[in-house]
Specification:
The structure holds 2 protein chains of 2 kinds.
Chain A (H helix, E strand, L loop, with lengths): L9 H22 L13 H5 L2 H11 L9 H11 L2 H6 L1 H8 L17 H16 L4 H4 L1 H31 L2 H17 L11 H13 L7 H6 L1 H9 L5 E4 L10 H5 L21 H5 L6 E4 L13 H13 L26 H7 L5 H5 L5 E3 L12 E3 L12 H5 L10 H5 L5 E4 L5 H4 L6 H5 L7 E9 L5 E9 L9 H5 L8 E4 L16
Antiparallel strand pairs in A: 1-2, 3-4, 5-8, 6-7
Chain B lengths: L2 H12 L8 H12 L4 E6 L3 H9 L14 E6 L15 H13 L4 E4 L7 H7 L2 H8 L4 E3 L7 E5 L8 E5 H5 L2 E5 L1 E5 L3 E3 L20 H11 L4 E10 L12 E10 L2 H9 L10 H8 L11 E3 L2
Parallel strand pairs in B: 1-12, 2-3, 2-7, 3-4, 7-10, 8-10
Antiparallel strand pairs in B: 1-11, 5-6, 8-9, 10-11
The chains are: A mainly alpha, B alpha/beta.
Chain lengths: 523, 304
């Protein structure tokens, strides 16, 4: 090996790929933002579109071919050739799990094989569930878990921490310090941090979910990948007979089972056979094998993958659970009376289709320049958790902006042109006259009217003579909504200067996506 | 209030009988009364860079306001995600010409900013102002977004509706603050002109100013004092202001109005909408506080 010393070893190459893909992923993540022009080029939705699990569940839910998700075929092709190389070389969550192993105190491998079947059972349950109307893939998909946590928690937290630091230097440090710190801050603002401070509903739960996935490595190395990850399960199914695979040692190795001990996914058995369905090609064994016995070979040269330890009962139970669980959904109140304040982003499909296509990745929330989109709690049911909704009091839908539809990986939020966006009703505003100042106290205000973005304003006002709180006769301008003009953007609710609740509120009433669906299940 | 009343007040005051009188109010009104009639310059033409030069000429050109080495702040209206044709923001060519004039007068730095109503990046891009300032290609011309850290609490000692508010630090302590609003319709205040443009230089929950808008703007004008007010009336928005959106609501006037007197500039610009200055509450309140002239008959108007 001496002449090749300047080249990285097998593990070095793999690490390089992991770092490379992770950095690429982060770049795409940060670029998932307004860039000065209406059209966004290059966003982290790319990652989701190469995810065959989400492609499958989205297509099963839609019962049609979702063209946006076809790039997932590339991952399938890669898997058919190299097995689960994607998990070991490209998956950003896998890279993060590997990188954080030291943090959770359990470097090294673990040959334990128990629990592997769970990912297959989960996969079956998710696929059948998606087909029958219970879309849950977004909660366990590795990319969804990762992007959601970064978008809703890590990125805003980083912004807050750095802004606090640079605010302190700006206000208290001497000028010569600021000559250094201010350009650094400007650079970070321009290229790394979100443009302005953001807040997100469910930011902590989404972070906890990611940390839990990383923390499971303490129990067993790559716990999530080998036991839970349904994408890993799907790729494992495609890796049973890869064209190229690793072939391990044999009886000549004597008592040495170093490969088995260090294998991070427990893919190597007592006989040193490497299970291609579990092996993520991390190449640790290749590099560490004292006798250089482990090498790549054509599939025919190696024994077949051991059978999946998945009993018929488990299969049936998974299928049945996926098919039967959706039956409980129509029994819930919101099947008849949907949450009125659940305002979906412009271009969102009709609710059942939307829930089926949405992968809960949080990209729309990340890209939303008004910080209007937030993760739902239980407003849309348990399966609506982490789906986007507009919270007008926190942010509003920017009239000319169409970014959420551009980044949505599956088209759960349709891509809208600017004119189409202007005509898309996501809800309607109404006034709470008990709080609205011109009505309640006879005080002028109409900030809502000022900000109403439709060229023919949906909020208009009447000049009215009223008796104000002090008992004086005064003339004030009282606002009102013209329903046929209001598109529900929520800027009125957002800019209403009252403290606490706004006096003008947006509900989902009149939304375009359900225009033709009156009389159907409450919609 | 007039000079006679002021003298009476001073007599009372000097007699020590009325120490509780709001003396700031009296003094500023008196000062206004003693000022010579303000000069309002008006220029019309389709070549906006030339128009800026033309409108500043009677006022002594930019050199009368910007001295070499000055730190200048130019505050256009970049409030809305609208294009120049829609007339909701100051025209980018006007902004560029004003910044260039300040640079030519020797400014050490010209900062352009606005605290927008729509998303800041969209406003800066759609208005064309960001590109216009960057196109100057001079390191001294800086356009930046309103940085939350730069808004500092200010005591407004003469304020009647506002006594304390967060105001942009550089707008306050620069050597020359140039107010560069666009003239347009506004639902609550009738029109938005120079005084209303101060809204973009302040922090906080600005909507609450609407509860007594005219007086609040006059109060702000006591601390945020432009050396020059240049009102862009190249396009004026007649309806559905202040953000418009329909070019049918825009009238092209190709007009600029400039004055060192912020109230006079507003008052004269009001006439472009066939309105009287008395109909704009901020003009009336600022005049009453002695911040400038609103009586059209007591102005020297050049080019009008």
């Amino acid at each position: 090996m001496a002449p090749r010393r300047w080249l990285p070893g097998p593990v070095g190459w793999r690490r390089l790929a992991q770092w490379g893909f992770f950095v690429l992923f982060l770049v795409l993540f940060v670029k998932t933002d307004y860039s000065g022009v209406d059209e966004l080029h290059g966003a982290v939705n790319l990652l989701f579109r190469i995810d065959p699990l989400l492609a499958l569940t989205a297509m099963l839910a839609a019962k049609t071919v979702v063209v946006l998700m076809l790039p997932a075929l590339a991952t399938v092709a890669l898997t058919l050739v190299f097995g689960r190389a994607f998990c070991g070389w490209a998956c950003p969550l896998g890279a993060l799990i590997d990188a954080s192993r030291m943090l959770f105190g359990r470097p090294g491998g673990d040959p334990e094989t128990r629990g592997r079947w769970i990912k297959y059972a989960l996969l079956l349950f998710l696929l059948v569930g998606a087909l029958f109307g219970l879309p849950l893939a977004g909660y366990v998909d590795p990319f969804s878990i990762l992007v959601r946590a970064l978008a809703l928690a890590v990125h805003p937290a980083l912004d807050h921490a750095l802004t606090t630091l640079f605010t302190w230097t700006y206000q208290h440090a001497p000028t010569w310090v600021n000559q250094f710190t201010e350009p650094v801050y400007a650079l970070l603002r321009a290229h790394v941090l979100p443009f302005s401070a953001k807040v997100y509903a469910l930011s902590v739960p989404s972070l906890v979910l990611l940390l839990a996935v990383l923390g499971l490595s303490r129990v067993r190395s790559r716990f999530f990948c080998r036991i839970l990850c349904p994408l890993g399960g799907l790729l494992a199914l495609g890796s049973r007979r890869p064209l190229v695979r690793l072939v391990g040692g044999d009886d000549d190795c004597g008592t040495c089972r170093l490969c088995r001990t260090i294998c991070r996914t427990g893919a190597i058995d007592q006989e040193r056979h490497i299970d291609p369905a579990e092996c993520v090609l991390c190449l640790d064994c290749v590099q560490k094998c004292p006798r250089d016995r482990i090498h790549f070979a054509r599939a025919s040269a190696a024994p077949a993958a051991p059978p999946i330890n998945l009993g018929r009962r488990t299969v049936l139970a998974s299928l049945a659970a996926g098919a039967l669980a959706p039956l409980a959904l129509p029994a819930r109140p919101h099947a008849r009376h949907p949450e009125p304040y659940l305002v979906r982003p412009p271009g969102a499909l009709a609710e059942p289709d939307f829930l089926g296509q949405c992968v809960r990745c949080g990209e729309c929330m990340k890209v939303c320049i008004g910080n209007a989109l937030h993760a739902s709690g239980l407003e849309a049911g348990l399966e609506g958790l982490f789906t986007p909704r507009l919270i007008g009091r926190i942010g509003y839908c920017e009239y000319n902006c169409t970014l959420c539809g551009q980044v949505c990986p599956t088209g759960a939020i349709r891509r809208l042109g600017r004119d189409e966006k202007h005509a898309t009703v996501i809800g309607r505003a109404h006034f709470d006259r008990n709080r609205c100042l011109p009505y309640a106290s006879g005080i002028d205000c109409i900030v809502c009217e000022e900000h109403c973005p439709t060229p023919d304003k949906a909020i208009k006002f009447r000049e009215t003579e009223v008796v104000n709180s002090r008992g004086e006769r005064v003339s004030v301008r009282q606002p009102y909504v013209v329903d046929s003009l209001c598109i529900g953007c929520g800027i009125c609710e957002n800019k209403c200067p009252l403290e606490g609740a706004a006096a003008v509120l947006v509900t989902a009433a009149g939304e375009s996506r359900h225009a033709g669906r009156r009389g159907w299940g409450g919609y | 209030m007039h000079r006679r009343q002021f003298l009476r007040d001073v007599l009372l005051w000097s007699a020590g009988a009325t120490l509780a009188l709001p003396r700031f109010t009296i003094r500023t009104e008196a000062l206004a009364a003693e000022k010579p009639p303000p000069l309002v310059s008006v220029a019309r033409g389709a070549d906006y860079p030339a128009l800026v030069t033309q409108v500043l000429e009677p006022l002594g050109s930019m050199a009368a306001f910007v001295r070499p080495g000055d730190r200048v702040v130019v505050k256009p209206n970049i409030g809305w995600d609208r294009s120049p044709e829609q007339g909701a923001n100051t025209h980018p060519q006007v902004v560029r010409a004003v910044v260039e004039a300040a640079l030519a007068a020797g400014a050490a730095r010209v900062l352009v900013f606005d605290r927008t109503c729509n998303e800041p990046r969209r406003c800066y891009a759609s208005s064309g102002i960001e590109a216009a300032v960057q196109a100057i290609g001079d390191r001294r011309a800086v356009i930046e977004h309103a940085d939350p850290r730069k808004f500092v609490p200010v005591e407004i000692s003469r304020g009647q509706a506002l006594t304390r508010w967060d105001i942009h630090r550089e707008a306050l302590d620069c050597d020359c603050y140039i107010n560069l609003p666009v003239a347009k319709h506004h639902g609550l205040s009738g029109l938005t002109l120079g005084l209303k443009n101060a809204m973009g230089a302040i922090g906080g929950n600005r909507g609450t100013l609407h509860h007594d808008l005219g007086q609040s703007l006059a109060d702000l004008a006591t601390v945020l004092q432009p050396k020059l007010t240049l009102i862009d009336a190249t396009r004026i928005l007649l309806r559905n202001g202040p953000q418009g959106g329909d070019v049918a609501d825009v009238r092209r006037l190709d007009t600029l109005v400039a004055s060192a007197d912020p109230v006079a500039a507003d008052a004269w610009a009001t006439t472009l909408f066939d309105l009287r200055p008395e109909t704009i509450a901020s003009t009336v309140a600022a005049h009453r506080m002695g911040l400038g002239e609103m009586d059209l008959a007591r102005m020297r108007v050049v080019g009008g």
